[in-house]
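ugh ok so i messed up the first submission bc i forgot one of the chains. this is the corrected input, ALL of the components this time, i swear. 222 residues overall. if the numbers dont match what u have on ur side tell me asap before i send this to the collaborators (the ones from the other lab, u know who)
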Amino acid sequence: ELKVEQNPLFLSMQEGKNYTIYCNYSTTSDRLYWYRQDPGKSLESLFVLLSNGAVKQEGRLMASLDTKARLSTLHITAAVHDLSATYFCAGYTGGFKTIFGAGTRLFVKA
Amino acid sequence: GAGVSQSPSNKVTEKGKDVELRCDPISGHTALYWYRQSLGQGLEFLIYFQGNSAPDKSGLPSDRFSAERTGGSVSTLTIQRTQQEDSAVYLCASSPTVAGYTFGSGTRLTVV
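and heres the new structure output, hopefully the right one now
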């Protein structure tokens, strides 16, 4: 069964700094999702990565997928406080079941 | 509506009572999912509906949990004889394809 592991689980960083969140998955996954969740809120879709080598960027966030390494990364460039949230990656197992990682709680300090 | 609607947004119930949680997906979305999120935890898959196919119930934690989807639209998640460990946020999501879900705001269930 697909397992999805994120690291780090908690990240505190200074504004203006860069950092990467890693998402490893255990078996073949046709696609990889990234979601953002603000405290007390639901999940917001950020990226859907559909193929090996896929790279998507939105503002200060860039996501990539390496299906051979079974690894996706979410890179944060020049972090700002508004990026503080929990970020989830999720893999798709087929049969329409999506398995979520435990989430990375990001706190950006002003 | 424009998004996935869940009701109630908050529910406090006594241990042993039954509860029903409702999800109204985006119109035209054939896939509907229920997930559970315990405090500070990730998402636990519960059940998936796709069109008229038999639902994937493999994530339901016990036979106290059941779900229906009527007319390919609204879904109800029912928890019988609630226990304190059932306390969590129950999230519903819908999708027209597998290219990403839209989540509802969730129902926060507290069993006292």
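quick check: The two ends of chain A are 41 Å apart (CA to CA). that seems consistent at least. Chain A has a mean pLDDT of 92.
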